[in-house]
TrEMBL record, chains A, B:
Catalytic activity: orotidine 5'-phosphate + H(+) = UMP + CO2
Keyword entries, A-Z: Decarboxylase, Lyase, Pyrimidine biosynthesis
InterPro entries referenced in this protein's UniProt entry, alphabetically: Aldolase_TIM, OMPdecase_type-2, OMPdeCOase_dom, RibuloseP-bd_barrel
Gene Ontology molecular function terms on file: orotidine-5'-phosphate decarboxylase activity
Keyword set includes Lyase: yes
Family: Belongs to the OMP decarboxylase family. Type 2 subfamily.
SUPFAM superfamilies noted in UniProt: Ribulose-phoshate binding barrel
Xref: SMART domains: OMPdecase
Record carries keyword Amino-acid biosynthesis: no
Protein name: Orotidine-5'-phosphate decarboxylase
Enzyme nomenclature, EC number: 4.1.1.23
Family annotation (Pfam families): OMPdecase
BP GO annotations: 'de novo' pyrimidine nucleobase biosynthetic process; 'de novo' UMP biosynthetic process
Length: 276, 276
């Protein structure tokens, strides 16, 4: 999916919501545990209940790998179940030397080899350009590079001063010479309120993937005040706030209610910004 | 395996060789392709042929994930086949927010959940302390943090100047307050010759995992000149140079020959340093 198509989806659904598919076996409703693949069944029902309200799904690979072979199988089935017109993100935070990153690109972009072909993958920037470039060789696929993450550890290295600004600013500046905003997005945590205006000025045309609204305490209004651009430019992720909204047999309905609240809030924001 | 046990293994085998198990289906000998799991069969024969010459095996997860479900199964079987007294490293370069890194720790350290329990995992430092700490909760398990990597992209961010030194130096300095050299190692590429003395002074007691000897052009002698400490302190990895030494039915013998060359070189270095 290219940038124009993504914006069309946002306008059509009046939403820039990304639903994080991060199920933990211990937290999913009891009645699903008798299913052959409870994790997939959980995701399937969440997807059915929210697919008209969101423009992206983001399974975080950790939640699947932790279940071993069965978990990886749930990931494959989940990817296959995400509707084709919804942007799919492998939140994998990979990155390695060139020939190895090419293998990761196969894992997440090359369906013939791995059984999956996501629209995008999250990548950690520490190893630099050649750890990122193999992912950029796939047409219409995206790299979403970690810039300013939502967690406390953000302070340890990302805020270190370098001669031309903080490390995360340099990550944005330098990586923007590797690919343009048609191929590269950035992860910016919703908890980074005060830094949002600055980040938007460094990457005026880029989509930002924004986790941290909800369970992690970030504010949607604040994110949008500084983060919106003329093609929206935001994918705001919510995982726990949506998928664990209910614990009973009506968990999917409850998830829909939470997704709907966010969608309506987003619709108002898009209308006020005259983007729809 | 703890630090003392690792040094005992090094002295007993007169080797600090780590063999990288990074098989690409296209590169493994033709005659193995008829096996039900050619990747595992390849690894099995490599392990049989080299296990008395090395102290560690390091499968890089990318080479397994690229094969999808079947690839993940090969990884599980490979982990299970690594002898218990040989240090096993999941070269996964993971790292995420705390609750998610805890899932990755399950994936690679918690056999009951995932089917695998490596001795160590490589972790990317960009997301800071809380992305690393969940891995440190497992007794006798190790985090191997990326510091100065062997690839060209090393120059993009790792060498940026911060108020207290280069970024990779700060990664070592700051992370050394999270855990001591009994739990934390660092990845330092063999191609970083001139920086090795500096790195050793920053982490005098730590083991360093050193990729980049062989295919990537790093020199074992140079690494050892600056990198050895009083308990060796080095695990030198070779992957392509060993596993692809032969392309025919004798590939395992050829792999052994290359591993033996390195082991003998290491033996001499350990003797000269009076460590054995």
């Amino acid at each position: 999916m290219n940038k124009k198509q993504l914006f069309e989806q946002i306008k059509s659904k009046k939403s820039f919501l990304c639903v994080g598919l991060d199920p933990v076996l211990e937290n999913i409703p009891q009645h699903l545990l008798s299913h052959e693949d409870p994790v997939f069944e959980f995701n399937r029902q969440i997807i059915d209940a929210t697919k008209d309200l969101c423009v992206a799904y983001k399974p975080n690979t950790a939640f699947y790998e932790s279940g071993g072979l069965k978990g990886w199988e749930s990931l494959l089935k989940t990817w296959a179940y995400i509707p084709e017109d919804i942007f799919s993100i492998a939140d994998a935070k990979r990155g390695d030397i060139g020939n190895t990153s090419a293998m990761y690109a196969d894992a997440f972009f090359n369906k013939e080899k791995s059984g999956m072909s996501f629209d995008a993958i999250t990548v950690a920037p520490y190893m630099g350009r050649d750890s990122v470039s193999p992912f950029l060789k796939y047409e219409n696929k995206w790299v979403i590079l970690l810039a300013a993450t939502s967690n406390e550890g953000h302070n340890d290295f990302q805020l270190l001063q370098t001669p031309k600004g903080k490390l995360y600013e340099q990550v944005i500046r330098i990586s923007s010479t590797w690919a343009d905003s048609e191929r590269l997005m950035y992860v910016v945590g919703a908890t980074r309120g005060s830094e949002f205006a600055n980040i938007r000025s460094l990457a005026p045309d880029s989509f930002l993937l924004v986790p941290g609204v909800g369970a992690q305490g970030g504010s949607l209004a604040e994110v949008c005040e500084f983060g919106l651009n003329d093609h929206c430019g935001l994918l705001v992720n919510s995982a726990r706030g949506i998928i664990y909204a209910g614990k009973g047999e009506d968990f999917a309905e409850k998830a829909r209610e939470e997704a709907l609240k966010l969608q309506l809030e987003m619709q108002q924001i898009l209308e006020e910004a005259e983007l729809i």
